[in-house]
Amino acid sequence: MIYLTNKTELPAPSVVISLIPIFVVCIALFLSVFIYETKVHIPLFLGAITAGIIGYIHGFSWKFIQSGYISSISRAIPSLLILLIIGMLISVWVASGIVPAIIYYGFDILVPSIYLPSIFIVCCFMSVITGSSWTTIGTFGVAAIGISQGLQIPPPAAAGAIVSGAFFGDKLSPMSDSTNLTPSVLGVNLYSHIKHMLYTTGPSFIISLIMYVILGLFLVEGSSDTAFISKYQKEIIKHFTFSGWLFLPPVIVIILIAFKIPAIPSLVTGVLLGGVMQLFIQDKSMGDFFNILYNGVHLSTGLEEVDKLLSRGGMSSMYSVVALAILSLAFGGIMNRCKMLESIVKKMTVLVDSRGHLIITTLLTSIFINIFSANQYLAVIIPGQMYESSYKKLKLSLKNLTRALESGGTLTAPLIPWNSSGAFIYSVTSIYPFAFAPYAFICWLTPIITGIFGYINITMEKED
């Protein structure tokens, strides 16, 4: 057998052979997620090994195969660093009182007659600031579900507004892990990616807001349960000192983002300013600051609901996501380098031979991977690497691809019960995803609008 290092000297493996690593991942994921209820990391590792073995048997040298996953992972290193920084940012903003203050004062603006649009907007704002849909849902969202019961508003409707707002804000935040990961995998500028998503998420936001206003008018039957709100506010104020200075770090980070300062310096600035607030306003020690940055916040107030609200974050909380991203990129990089993805995509030319078909195929592929793999990161990484060459062939900017990946992969994740996002939301709100899915307007409107824009050629930018 001759082992070559130049991929152009070898033909692509057949479709049947190229599909073997995918079948291995699919079977392993099924066993891991549905049978043994374990993490999805090992199935991806097995898929990468299988792809490497097939590539080696086909004739590619180990050095050549290695260059595939190294190249794939190296493009995402800035995003992986951002993931770790985001973990620190969440923890220090909670410990410094920034997030508790936002939650505390957020309660005061919830008016029964406009409850649903109010929590939708508040979740949008909080998610943009924190860069985390999960943090928004796990903090303000949990309390908002309880408040909805006092207002006699169906909790699934409130959960839908919370999820819509949280994931909408997440998509527009330069501090979001998935929003950073998706463009970095394809070499797209972060701010260009966010701006391009506005063309589809903007209309879906406006439509959703109108629908929440109308829906809220029909659902509100009671009045606000002030005792319920007061319980949370009193417990929060007992453990945190509030000051107007706490709103300075979010404002500064927003200003930095507005002036297009790169994500890492902006995030690091947020971490450092949060540390200053923790040291001087919350009167914590430098040792507490270092410990929280790594291990996150673990609050013990005696009130379980508040403990769940504010115990989170830390660099260590992101290790699993970072490992998952590395394994996903390794798997996709080997598949791409050894021409296996090329072989599969060539057989799908009937589906990607036009702009509209390509957008729809991207959306459906992301949704399919979301459903089967139960992880939204795979739903943007794998299709991104599969269809990159197809977008270039049609002279379409890769911003169109990253937008479709976010629409189909990230925004549909919370609607799938066994997806990591859907499972998380169910665990903190006790509302099943299928119950709140009809009310999570952003999550299913955005993919529809993205597909329509693809077919009628609206905001489909050409490659420079």
Automatic annotation (TrEMBL):
Q: How does it sit in the membrane?
A: Multi-pass membrane protein
Q: Report domain Na+/H+ antiporter NhaC-like C-terminal positions.
A: 165-457
Keywords (alphabetical) are: Antiport, Cell membrane, Membrane, Transmembrane, Transmembrane helix, Transport
Give yes or no: UniProt keyword Membrane: yes
- The keyword Transport belongs to this UniProt entry's keyword annotation: yes
Q: Which domain of life is it from?
A: Bacteria
Q: Kindly give the Pfam families that the UniProt entry links to this protein.
A: Na_H_antiporter (PF03553)
A single GO CC term for this protein reads: plasma membrane
Q: Give the signal peptide, or none.
A: none
Localization in the cell: Cell membrane
UniProt GO MF annotations: antiporter activity
Annotated InterPro entries = Na/H_antiport_NhaC (IPR004770), Na/H_Antiport_NhaC-like_C (IPR018461), NhaC_Na-H+_Antiporter (IPR052180)
Task: From the record, give the transmembrane residue ranges.
Answer: 12-36, 42-59, 80-107, 119-145, 198-220, 240-259, 264-281, 317-335, 356-382, 436-458
Family per record: Belongs to the NhaC Na(+)/H(+) (TC 2.A.35) antiporter family.
What is this protein called in UniProt? Na+/H+ antiporter NhaC
What are the top taxonomic ranks of the organism?
Answer: Bacteria, Bacillati, Bacillota, Clostridia, Peptostreptococcales
